[in-house]
Amino acid sequence: MAPAPAAMSGRTNWSGECKNLWRVAGPVILASVFQFLIAFVTAAFVGHIGQVELAAVSIVNGVIEGLAFGLLLGMGSALETLCGQAVGAGQRQMLGIYMQRSWIICLATSLLLLPLYLLASPVLRLLRQSPAISAASGRYARWCAPQLFAYAVNFPIQKFYQAQSRVWAMAAISAAVLAAHALLNWLVVARLGRGMVGAAIVGDVSWWLLNAAQFAYLVGGSFPEAWTGFSRKAFANLGRFLRLSIASAIMLCLEMWYYTAVLILVGCLKNPEIQVGAISICMNYQLWTLMVALGFNAAVSVRVSNELGANHPKAARFSVVVATTTSAAIGLIFTAIALAARKQMPWLFTDDGAVVKETAKLGYLLATTIFLNSIQPVLSGVAIGAGWQSLVAFVNIGCYYLVGLPLAAVFGFKLKLNATGIWVGVLIGTVLQTVILIVILVRTKWQKEAMLAEERIRVWGGNVELPEARETSSSENIAAPV
C-alpha cells in the first residue's frame, strides 16, 4: 500500500517537520481568529444599542452558544482521527463518507440542542439572571437558532480540510466572511437600526455564507478522490462512528468547561465584582494565546493521524516532539510578555484601579497557565490523532473535576484565598493532567498504535474496507463491504 504524500513528507528532519506543522497550524490559527471575531464584531455593534442588549448578546454567546459550539466542535473532532488516518493510509475515498456520517450525527445533535435556544429565557432565569437580560437573551437566542445547524455543518467540513492539509482555503474563506459580516452589521444594525434581531440574522447569514463557500470549494473539483458526491453509505453502521464522536465531544467539553467553572466559582465569592473583572481580563489574554496552541493541536493531530495511517510510527513520534517543543517555545514568549506587562496590560481593559491591582496580583498565575496551555492542547491533539479520546476523557474527569475544582473550592472558600486560591486549585488539576498525558506519551508503543490505526479504518469507519481487506475478507472475515 503506497502511503499518501502528506504522510511521507515528515520523517526525522526537524526543519521539514516544522514546515509540515506550520503548513496546518498557521492557517488554522488565522481561521480560528477570524471565526472568533464574528461574535466579537456582533457584540461590538450591539454594544452601541444599550447595556441590556450587550449583556444579552454576551450571555448568549458565552453560555447558550458556548455550550452548543463546544459539543458540536467535539463531535466533529472524531473526523480528525478517522480522516487523518485514512489519508495516511492512502484511502482518500473514505473521507467523504466519514464527513457525511459526521454531518448526520452533528445535525441530529443540533436538533437535541434546539430547545436550549428556544427556551433560553427561562433557562437563564433559572441561572439567576435578571428578568430584563433573560428576556432580551431569549429573543436573541431564538433568532440565532440557524447558527446552531451551521455549526453542525461547519465543523465536519473543516476537519475534512485539515486532514488533507488544505487549510489555506478555509482561512481565506473565514477572512472574507468576517469582512462581509462586519459590513452587514454596519448596514443592518448601525444604519438601518434593526437592533438585536438584525444582528442575529446577520450572524445567521454569515455562518451559512461560510458553509456555502466551503461547500462550493468542496464540490468544485479540488478533492476528486476524497469527495465523490453524497452516498447512502453514510448511513451505514453509524453506531461505531457515534461512539468516537461522543468520546471526542466529552473530551473537548470537559476541557472547555473547566475554565468556565473558574468564573462561576469566582462569581460565588463575597463582593466578587473586582475579582470577576480581574479573572475575566486574565482569561481574555489567555484566550488569544490559546489560539496559537490550538493551531498546533490541529496540526499535530493531522501529522500523527497521517503518519500512523501510513504505518510510520517513528515519524509520528518525531512529530509529537517537534510540535510540543515548538508550541512550548512560543508559549515561553507569551509567558514572558504576561510577566513583563502584568501591571500595564490590565489598563487595556479597564480604568478601575482596584481591578488593575487585582489583575496584576494574578499575573504570575496567568503566566504559569499560559505556559501549561502551550503544551496541554498539543498533547490533546496527539490524543485525537491517535484515537485516545475515551482515555483522555477519563483523565480529564479525574484531574479536572475530582482534583482541580474541589481544591479550588477549598483554597478559595475554606482557606479564604478568594480568586487566587481558586486559580491555584484549577492550576494543580491542569499540571496533573499534563503530567499524566506526558507519561502516557512516553510509554506509548507507536508501532502498536500504527496497527490500531489500520484496524480503526476498517472497523470504526463503519464497514468501509481497505483494498487488502477486500482481497482477504472472504477467508479472514475482517469486514463486510458496504
TrEMBL record:
<keyword id="KW-1133">Transmembrane helix</keyword>
<feature type="transmembrane region" description="Helical">
    <location>
        <begin position="241"/>
        <end position="265"/>
    </location>
</feature>
<feature type="transmembrane region" description="Helical">
    <location>
        <begin position="21"/>
        <end position="46"/>
    </location>
</feature>
<feature type="transmembrane region" description="Helical">
    <location>
        <begin position="318"/>
        <end position="342"/>
    </location>
</feature>
<dbReference type="Pfam" id="PF01554">
    <property type="entry name" value="MatE"/>
</dbReference>
<dbReference type="InterPro" id="IPR002528">
    <property type="entry name" value="MATE_fam"/>
</dbReference>
<keyword id="KW-0472">Membrane</keyword>
<feature type="transmembrane region" description="Helical">
    <location>
        <begin position="169"/>
        <end position="189"/>
    </location>
</feature>
<feature type="transmembrane region" description="Helical">
    <location>
        <begin position="66"/>
        <end position="90"/>
    </location>
</feature>
<feature type="transmembrane region" description="Helical">
    <location>
        <begin position="195"/>
        <end position="220"/>
    </location>
</feature>
<keyword id="KW-0812">Transmembrane</keyword>
<feature type="transmembrane region" description="Helical">
    <location>
        <begin position="285"/>
        <end position="306"/>
    </location>
</feature>
<feature type="transmembrane region" description="Helical">
    <location>
        <begin position="391"/>
        <end position="413"/>
    </location>
</feature>
<feature type="transmembrane region" description="Helical">
    <location>
        <begin position="362"/>
        <end position="384"/>
    </location>
</feature>
<dbReference type="GO" id="GO:0016020">
    <property type="term" value="C:membrane"/>
</dbReference>
<feature type="transmembrane region" description="Helical">
    <location>
        <begin position="419"/>
        <end position="442"/>
    </location>
</feature>
<protein>
    <recommendedName>
        <fullName>Protein DETOXIFICATION</fullName>
    </recommendedName>
</protein>
<dbReference type="InterPro" id="IPR045069">
    <property type="entry name" value="MATE_euk"/>
</dbReference>
<comment type="similarity">
    <text>Belongs to the multi antimicrobial extrusion (MATE) (TC 2.A.66.1) family.</text>
</comment>
<feature type="transmembrane region" description="Helical">
    <location>
        <begin position="102"/>
        <end position="120"/>
    </location>
</feature>
